[in-house]
DNA sequence: TATTGTTATACTCTATAACTATA
DNA sequence: TATAGTTATAGAGTATAACAATA
């Protein structure tokens, strides 16, 4: 392992700050407000996931992608259904399972939400050159993947 | 504003994934385990902040940097004090305030924690060239700053 | 009168356990 | 017997309100 370079040490506060901005800055809540539906964070996450996936998902699949336990998804899916933003269909292949599908109202809200967030991101990067953008997107993806891969091996080390 | 480029749209899931890895992957908990103290997340945050700042901080200052409300800091500072990891000193300049200072035991735990996390980061980026590292650090910092700046102006837009 | 920090309380997000229906 | 989802319950993290001491 050896020493950790000073640069890496300097980047740690940045990562923590970014984590804060992403999770605790009210970004989601404010974008949701602009989108005009008073949904809470987990419900928004479900809605956006369904929109970006572009197909109905099973409850367990949603839970796995969100990395949360099943009951969490059940509750918020019910909330979304009460508001008419998703539909729950029987899975013809497996009668134990339920497919969760966006309604057109749900898709509309997801689109407004995504538009707002992407607009903010776009404006934040207004002064960026095309090259810097490309580079950042590429390195961000690589970093996220490498970090997730490293963390996934920790438990098997003992 | 205009259209959001497809690239930006593609990067959104990456950001969400990174937020998940940073906040919900158990990274903090597992590093804390390795560091040998059974502290919870907010307590670790306080400890690390004091260590990286390298000087005693007032309760209000800690709360501001963590972007949390005051009582949250009070509670976790008390927990840290019970364990002998911080000391609470009177602020001679302002008798209303308290300074929170690391003990040597607290500094030791913070160092072990930081060493573990930085080690994981370093290993995750094992295959990275020096140039890519530098570029990533620079762009990450810029992105975080630009995004925080953009979000800070949202409320004043109405 | 405003500010620092504390105490008490409540809300959001998420996990675990126990259960039902199907496989 | 194992799996998909649900219901009920509990815990962690954080906010708000009310208050004390000092400015």
Q: What is the helix content of chain A?
A: 55-70%
Quaternary status: homodimer
Strands of chain A, count:
3
The share of residues in extended strands of chain A comes to: 5-15%
Structural class of chain A: mainly alpha
Number of helices of chain A: 7
The order of strands across the largest sheet of chain A is 1-3-2
Overall geometry of chain A comes to: globular
- The N- and C-terminal alpha carbons of chain A lie at a distance of 17 Å
Mean pLDDT of chain A: 93
Largest interface: A-B, 60 and 59 residues
Sketch the topology of chain A as an H/E string, one letter per element. HHHEHHEEHH
Low-pLDDT windows of residues of chain A: none
Radius of gyration of chain A: 19 Å
* Largest sheet features of chain A: 3 strands, antiparallel
């Amino acid at each position: 392992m050896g020493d950790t370079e000073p640069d890496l040490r300097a980047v740690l506060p940045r990562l923590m700050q970014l984590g804060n901005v992403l999770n605790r800055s009210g970004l989601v809540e404010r974008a949701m407000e602009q989108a005009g539906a008073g949904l809470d964070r987990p419900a928004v996450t479900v809605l956006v996931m369904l929109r970006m996936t572009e197909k109905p998902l099973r409850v367990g699949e949603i839970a796995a992608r969100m990395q949360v336990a099943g009951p969490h998804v059940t509750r918020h899916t019910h909330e979304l259904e009460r508001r008419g933003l998703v539909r729950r269909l029987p899975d013809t292949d497996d009668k134990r399972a339920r497919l969760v599908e966006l309604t057109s109202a749900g898709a509309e809200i997801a689109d407004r939400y995504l538009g707002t967030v992407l607009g903010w991101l776009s404006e934040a990067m207004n002064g960026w050159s095309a090259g810097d953008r490309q580079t950042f997107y590429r390195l961000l993806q690589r970093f996220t993947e490498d970090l997730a891969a490293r963390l996934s091996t920790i438990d098997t080390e003992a």
